[in-house]
Specification:
The protein has 75 residues and is mainly α. It has three helices and no strands. Keywords: Ribonucleoprotein, Ribosomal protein.
């Protein structure tokens, strides 16, 4: 139970950061430092997803899709 709360907290922060970076990049296409930051942030998200799939906290068919997650976070 505690692990799931920690997972939700960590991933929600990372997902919000990734969404904010994507929003910034919509207006600033040539911002290379921010693109690098997005790559690093999403790499962390993908590593966590891989880890939690192995620990069976997430479903095996879970996929990270920024567009779908954007609608979930917006609610």
């Amino acid at each position: 139970m505690q692990n799931r709360k920690i997972f939700a907290h960590i991933t929600s922060n990372l997902v919000r950061r990734a969404l904010n970076i994507r929003k910034h990049l919509e207006n600033n296409h040539k911002d290379l430092e921010t693109k690098k930051g997005l790559n690093r942030t999403e790499a962390k998200i993908y590593r966590l997803i891989k880890y939690y799939k192995k620990k069976k906290v997430l479903a095996a068919d879970f996929k990270y899709d920024p567009e779908k997650i954007r609608t979930l976070v917006a609610r």
